[in-house]
## 1
Amino acid sequence: MLSSLAMLTLLVTLSCSGDSDSNNSPTTFSVNGENYTLLSSEGIVNLVSPNAYELDGNSYNRNTFVINGTKGLTDVATVTFDLFVKNGESIAGVYQISTDQDEDTFTSIDNILGSDVRVCIGWTSLIATTKIATQEIESGNAPTGTVQIISNGGNIYTIKFNGNFKNINQTSNIPVNMDITGTVSNGL
């Protein structure tokens, strides 16, 4: 009897510890050294364009991942990644961020997509923070590096990015560090 009770206690302990591990997914990301927590609902949204982009007989689906976080009651951060992936390929993968486009140089989207199965368009990927109490707003685009999307099954994804967005005032960078996991909802 005592050994049965010990075995039952061990099983309950192991099953409970497994449950708590699944709830410890990272849900905070950093913008300019300040931590923002994903919204519990609609924290990560995938906006899917209804029209594919056609290039040399290949179709590319456009997905915009929108990551929304808050800090306290008054600070908000939104990060977006504008992703193109060849039709039939998984959204999961590593996306090289194209920053070939700026106000002085034009690179067509055909040239950017022509060499990759998946790519993130930098000039249409954005960062914005708003601090309501101090009325500070900061925004930028053209992130550097890569963004990685990992499928964890179902609608649960991990998004990894560690780099800088170009501040819209062009005098500084906005550092962003994220390694977050959450349920991705589909936008309209």
## 2
Amino acid sequence: MNRLVVILFMLCATVTQGQERPFHLKTNLPLWALTTPNLTVEYQLAPKQSISLTGYKGDFVFISEMAIQGVNIHYRKYFNRQSDDLKGFYLSPGLAYYAERYNNRFPPTYGVRTDLGLQHVFDSNIIIDAGVGLYWQLYEEDGYTGEDIFRVQPLLRANLSVGYRF
């Protein structure tokens, strides 16, 4: 996780040199409550459009003891009539990688996600971001006949993030 944080900060520093477009650093609070550190970098590509990269990794005990790790990348389109900033309602399609370790096994899953949410930026550059969405997860499962079976499973997801606009 430490390497991921350093890489994301270096990426932000090199991308924003000499640029006036803002970028946001955010974290999803419910994941921290589950002892899963996470960080999102959102960079403005054009007015009302951005790309986000999220990384997380952690151990937690919820229903069972497990470790998770994942990376998401997604595009956001904001529907804000008052300004060209990254605030207001948004639609966000993206790609995701997720791995859960249980009994020393990492079954990776890949998926497509779509989020719908609302992001507000206060005058002090503090950000509140709330959203819900669907994640269509593709994973491999051992079949009864010894064959590997690929399955698609939809999952409902939610986020409540706080952050800072640079």
## 3
Amino acid sequence: MEHAIKAGGQVWTRLAYALVAALGVAIMVIGAHEGRAHLLFGGVMFVLIAATGCLHMRALRPARDDSAPSHAEKAAWSQIGLGWAALLVLGGVPLGSLRGSLAGYLLFGTYALLVVCYPAFRRRFVEEHRRYREVPEDERDRAIRAQGDYLSKRLLELAMVALAVAWVAWPAPFRALGGPLQVASVLLLPILAANVVGEARVAWLHWRDRQ
């Protein structure tokens, strides 16, 4: 009975992700037809969120030895979801979403705070759900976390260099951004994106370690 209920819940979750992906495709079509970059970007993000949700369901299945995901692995997936949601809204600001409104400044302030507190959210999640574990497992988690942090830092460095080179070589799109809010949003995007990729690396390493 319990297995049937769980299977039914997974079916509904997959259906929800399919609807999110279909909505994303529809938004992309509308954005391409009307020439609105922020709608096109938003549609792509909806599809990525749906795909990530499906991967999350697959990754959290028990391994062959019935070992369940650790809290560090679950924390990585929660941070990926948080990062995608932040990128969905913040990425639309420099593309024309919320231009000229107070909501744009409020959202920017929120996501600036999110960027600063991003590692703290992960640590709090792990600490609140941590149970007693042996030292070797803690060392393994720290080693995996170090690999994810290294990747995110390297990607951030490369992204900032690429952004600077693009700004010098092709300044027209950056001049078209408009006010300082749009420019500042562009600068925050690589930070969030690098963190999401780093968390994805951590989640994948944890999953591979359980197989």
## 4
Amino acid sequence: MKLYNKDYPAHEDLVIVRPVELNDDVGAYCELPEYDNIRALVLSSQLPKRKSVKQIFKIGSLYTCGVSSIHEVNKEGEKKVEINLTYSRVRPEDRKKNDESYPYKNKLYRLFEDVVKYHNKFYNEKPSDEVLKIYNEKLVYNYSPDMDEKNYNNILENITSYINNIKNEVNDDFINYVLNDYNKRIEISKLRVYQDIQFTILETDSLNKLIMCLESIKNTSIECIGSPKYRILFTGYDFDNLKENATQIIDNFKEYISNYKHNLSLIDDLKVLQDKQYKLDVIRI
């Protein structure tokens, strides 16, 4: 797997490492999965004080380190790139962010691999090296540096735009073939938001009628949290649209109850109860 349009990381880059050998005197010999598993070394001097390499690392697990040095060396007449890493000099907040983003970079690469599988099936042959290079650039390299959960979900939500990055390189039938299968595999659940209100009404049976009125509105419901506190729930796919609709519905509700003796006030702003959930089913071709 190669996630970036360069063969090696740069000095001070953060990288994901996978230890393959631990040596108490030297440090941790690692692979860099973002760079096609090239080798690097976390020196024992670059570990936290009073911590051994085996206390920090486990073989096969993933960690974030920083590149402390990278240079070309000549070994036995062969030029090689030597990469040294640091663990102790990476700030905890940077480590956390990088650790959290890597799984989504991995998922991004799986999207690219799926397109290659679609290509094999549709054209009944493997893509050429030149086509693979274009797929990599337009579907991986252009996205990977900023990839995180939000940006990955945005790709799934706008899969047509993502796949159209290769539109100039393939025919329309292939694009339609890919999108047709992706749209079957992608499942996005609705966003749920709520507005809490303090609400009392002094006329007999009027409360039930008003609740029924609210619940008759599509994608809207109301529940009692503990009288006189109620929660109005809205569902949809876009927060800004939901906010606009919620404001309009509550304004209409206020107007509707203006003929009744009542007391109504909003509690805080519109809040998210449940974010949209994104699911991509496995490819089945």
